[in-house]
Amino acid sequence: MTSKWMSLALEKAKEAGARGEVPIGAVLVQDGKVMAAAGNRIEELSDPTAHAEILVIREAARSLGTPRVGGELYVTLEPCPMCAAALSFARIERIFFGAFDPKGGGIDHGPRIFDHPTCHHRPQVFGGMSEQACAELLTGFFKERR
Amino acid sequence: MTSKWMSLALEKAKEAGARGEVPIGAVLVQDGKVMAAAGNRIEELSDPTAHAEILVIREAARSLGTPRVGGELYVTLEPCPMCAAALSFARIERIFFGAFDPKGGGIDHGPRIFDHPTCHHRPQVFGGMSEQACAELLTGFFKERR
Fold first, then answer.
1. In the prediction, which pLDDT does A146 show?
2. Could you identify which of A75, B80, B109, B145 might form a hypothetical disulfide with B105, taking C-beta atoms 3.0 to 4.6 angstroms apart as the criterion?
């Protein structure tokens, strides 16, 4: 089963790939409504923090008028340590991610951001949703670039 | 000895405190020139990612036209995991921080972002510069709020 939110995240990932960015997309949902949806814009904005997750958090926080956003995040790849920590600060309740990222992930791999006692808000995490579609998008992108 | 850049970071931290933000300040220096200086703006901007370090990276990256910034970062408190990972993405070469942060730090504490093989760029880190002044600013701020 593919969640419709993950499908939207995949669409945003594809758009990012078409812009020459690493194809990763994210959607922030609250009470069944999309608060923000974005793909990576690191190169376009010259912003090393412009990962899809950061963009949706910032947009939702701005429109809600509070840095403590809440809600559910759908993202095509396991968030990196920067994004995982930001999702904790933003008080995201649940994270659904697509592909696992042994090389750059920060939740199930590497620094495992939510596993430390110094992490004050721990979202629930569900990995592997639409895993194959999310992973294929990335491997296809990097294959083309080689 | 107090670095003049750390003094500027302390000034930015004080300004942040006066705005009701946690008093943390950061300065990004390249070839002896200040590229960006900022204090926290989390509440003001309703942006959970608006830590001083993120603000200076984003500003410098935008003005340089590349997400790979380089240079040296001076910050009054040990960066959190989000900022530590962002500093790695931004290819910061050296990080000088003031107070150590056992509760929320991400370099010498908690997830120790730079200590994992999945961290692809490791800045050199120098902690404890102007430590007392940086720490006192924070303890004074939280004492007032209680």
1. 74
2. B109
| Buried/exposed code over A85-102 (b: 16+ C-beta within 10 A; e: otherwise) | bbbbbbbbeebbbbbbbe
Instruction: Tell me which of A1-5, A18-22, A43-47, B60-64 is least confident.
Output: A1-5
Q: From the candidates B11, B15, B44, B53, which is the catalytic residue?
A: B53
Q: In angstroms, what separates the C-alpha of B37 from chain A's closest C-alpha?
A: 16
Tokens standing for A92? 């995201």
pLDDT class for A82, splitting at 50, 70, 90?
very high
CA A57 – CA A90 distance, rounded (Å): 7
Residue B80 and residue B106 in contact, taking contact as beta carbons nearer than 8 Å: yes
Q: Which residues of A touch B (CB under 8 A)?
A: 42-43, 45-50, 54, 57-58, 61-62, 64-69, 80-82, 84-86, 89-90, 102-106, 109-113, 116, 118-119
ipTM of this model?
0.95
Token pair for residue A17? Answer: 């790939």
What's at A79, amino acid-wise? P
Predicted pLDDT at B1: 44
The sign of the torsion formed by the CA atoms of A141, B60, B111, B123 equals positive
pLDDT, tens digit, for every residue of B8-63? 999 999 999 999 999 999 999 999 999 999 999 999 999 999 999 999 999 999 99
Are the C-beta atoms of residues B99 and B138 closer than 8 Å to each other?
yes
Angle at A83 between CA A115 and CA A4, to 5 degrees: 100
Q: What is this structure's pTM?
A: 0.96
Which amino acid is residue B105, in one-letter code? G
Whether A21 is catalytic is: no
Tokens of B145: 């709020």
Is the separation of the CB atoms in A116 and B116 below 8 Å?
no
Contact A57 B66 (CB under 8 A): no
- What gap in Å lies between CA B48 and CA A68, rounded to an integer? 7
Contact B73, B87 (CB under 8 A): yes
